[in-house]
């Protein structure tokens, strides 16, 4: 899925909302872009889990002095003003969100007329999506 994630850029990432900076742990509930599909969110969450595992302090090692533990719990919050990356396969976008766009907005978004294969190989499928937007 690395090529897709690279194409997404920072626009596809969930933002954080700080809750408490006083304690030893800071909680940053995730705020999700309204345009992002659940399938795309699922692979990004898997990437988050890998990144979090890589950032943990190894057994026998000490946490760096002055750093706080950072929690990023899931939330139901949605950012409707989040920037939208263009030219993604149609199943990377939330179908309800796409349906609410004006025709000129859909055209400007240049949605690819194919589905991304969120399976193990992570490549665009050759078949046309039933959700594909017509220009």
Topology summary:
Blueprint: H1 2-8, E1 15-16, E2 25-27, E3 30-33, H2 38-55, E4 69-71, E5 78-79, H3 95-99, H4 103-109
Parallel strand pairs: 2-4, 3-5
Antiparallel strand pairs: 1-3
Description:
- 27% of the residues lie in helices and 10% in strands.
- The chain is built from four helices and five strands; from the N terminus they run αβββαββαα.
- It has helices at residues 2-8, 38-55, 95-99, 103-109, and strands at residues 15-16, 25-27, 30-33, 69-71, 78-79.
- Mean pLDDT is 74; it is low at 126-135.
Order of helices and strands: HEEEHEEHH
| Backbone shape | elongated
Parts with pLDDT < 50 across at least 5 consecutive residues: 126-135
Distance between the termini: 27 Å
Average pLDDT number: 74
Structural class: alpha/beta
Secondary structure tally: strands: 5
Helical segment tally?
A: 4
Tell me the strand order in the biggest sheet: 1-3-5
């Amino acid at each position: 899925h690395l090529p897709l994630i690279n194409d997404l850029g920072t626009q596809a990432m969930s933002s954080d909302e700080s809750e408490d900076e006083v304690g030893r742990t800071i909680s940053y509930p995730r705020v999700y872009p309204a345009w992002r599909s659940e399938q795309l969110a699922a692979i990004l969450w898997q990437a988050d889990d890998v990144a979090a595992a890589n950032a943990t302090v190894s057994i026998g090692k000490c946490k760096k002095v002055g750093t706080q533990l950072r929690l990023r719990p899931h939330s139901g919050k949605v950012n409707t003003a989040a920037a939208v990356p263009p030219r993604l396969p149609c199943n990377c976008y939330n179908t309800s969100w796409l349906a609410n766009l004006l025709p000129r907005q859909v055209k400007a978004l240049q949605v690819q007329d194919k589905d991304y294969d969120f399976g193990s190989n992570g490549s665009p499928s050759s078949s046309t999506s039933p959700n594909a937007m017509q220009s």
